[in-house]
Amino acid sequence: MKTRNAYSREDLTDVFDSAAGQRALAVVTVQSAGSWQSFKARFLEADPKGRFFVLEHEPCDADALPALAPGQYTGVSFRHRSRKVLFATVVEAKGKFMFNDATSVSAVRYRWPDTVLELQRRSYQRTLIPGVVKLLANIWPGSAADRNQVQHGQITVVTGTMMDLSCGGTLVRTGLGTPPAWPADAPLGVELQLPDGRAPVTLDARYRGSRPDEQGRMCIAIQFIGLEVSLDGRLLLQRISKNVQQLSRSERVAGGSMNAPIAEHTGE
Question: How far is residue 66's CA from residue 88's CA, in Å, rounded to a whole number?
Answer without folding.
Answer: 17
